[in-house]
Specification:
mainly alpha; three-stranded antiparallel beta sheet; single chain; globular; 355 residues; 15 helices
Amino acid sequence: MSELITLSKNSPEFEAYLMGTFAKDKRALPLQTLNVNSASETVTFRVVPLKTLSRPSSLVVLLKTFKARSFLLILVPLFLTLTKNIADNTVIDPVTTVIATLGVLLAFMAVNLRNDYMDHLKGVDRVLEKSGSRAIQNGWVTAAQVKSYSSILLALSVLSAIPLVIAFPVIAGVIALSLVVGLWAQFKKQNSFKYQIGGEFALFLMLGPLLTVGYQLAMGAGFDDEIFWLGCVWGWLVLFVVHLRNFMNILPSAQAGFTNTVNWLGFDKSRRLLAAWWGLFVVFNLAYHLLYAGFYWGLYLSIALFILSVIFVYKLKNLSSPVGSELRGVFRSGFQLFLLTIGLWVFECLWYLLQ
């Protein structure tokens, strides 16, 4: 049988209920959070016995907890970098390539889990209903478990970096810089990058040039300008999705006092930001292809993206409210552009390999 309990931030039991460590046979599901991220914050929990908790299959829980769909953000740049080097015949050491791939995936899972843990404690995922994996809020796992999994995966990813540094010492600088950015971005308890204006730049670095350059160095291929700019173009595309998601949550985020670039700019300016950001991506993508890839591929991709962008920009321009079905339509349209870009880019790389 379930029961309701409301705790304030000053309550000695508050953290235990948030972490899920108050009892081994019960889960505390956060129903309502008031005055989030303040000294007067209160949370109403529904406490349910673990054996009566509605829970999907273990596979679904696993996929949801690790946010399987977000792996596109890491798998695509790894694929783009790998196919570039295969086509150029510059993969010197396949063993270190495999180790680097596993290390990057472990680090990404660690950061993903840590992100959900911090957003749960901070209140982001308790206030924004569509934010995060929802695994903690649904009681499928506890925040304490997620924190523990994250620490283990992070340690494994750091261990996997040791043979890479031994094989290619030049990669040590990239790994060190990535750790510094990652620790600042995700492991600060207060004011992490997600709650600072312009803080999204940390994601640009970690999922953009640091990732592609580091991965190529781990293959023994060395550094070149192309891999740096490939990372920059991909990082710019990732930030488009980040801004798009923040725009989707602009009203509840502002009401809860969460700060990011989008809600700092406000509704009207954020619409212009998204349109300009996407337009610049099309330009950057064309420039990258003209310099380093095929002229016709760059031309055809840019024309296709430009034509399809008209629908997105039109919906964005005619959006009159930060809530409702029109906003969801803008998000779907923008995310479809993101997926289409990935599909075309992957198809292009496969075409190069077949050639």
